[in-house]
Amino acid sequence: MSLRTWGSASWTCAGRPIEIGIRLALGARKRSVVTNVLGRSLRLTTIGLVIGVAISLVASGILSSMLYGVAPRNPLNLAIVAAGLALVAVLATLASALSALRADPVEALRTE
Fold first, then answer.
1. CA 63 to CA 57: how far, in whole Å?
2. Which of 20, 30, 71, 96 is deepest in the core (most CB within 10 A)?
3. For a pLDDT cut of 70, what percent of the chain falls above it?
4. Which domain holds residue 105?
């Protein structure tokens, strides 16, 4: 799941270099661009986490025989896994956003 999160986070930034270039060329602050990108990525991450937790709660009956020493619907484990995946999504988005911000806005506009 974390590889998928990394891919969607990279796509959120890398798929929009023209938009980021236009925003920077028109005077947007880098902080606002990063905040915008993080917001979009975290919305996708939240939707994925909600769907994943719902599926895990439904599938916990099937998986209960494979778990040793852990209750099938342990909220602490679900919270730790969800927080870990959210952290991976934030780090992946930040890495992509910061690399997109290093590019020259004029060059990003000229490529298309």
1. 10
2. 20
3. 79
4. 2-110
Q: How many domains does the chain have?
A: 1
The tokens for 57 are: 């709660």
The first and second tokens of residue 6, run together, are: 């990394």
Higher pLDDT, 79 or 15: 79
C-alpha–C-alpha distance, residues 5 and 84, integer Å:
11
**CB-based contacts of 83, cutoff 8 Å, min separation 6:** none
Q: 33: helix, coil or strand? A: helix
Spell out the alpha helix ranges (H) of the chain: 2-14, 17-25, 30-63, 75-102, 105-110
Q: Which amino acid is at 65?
A: S
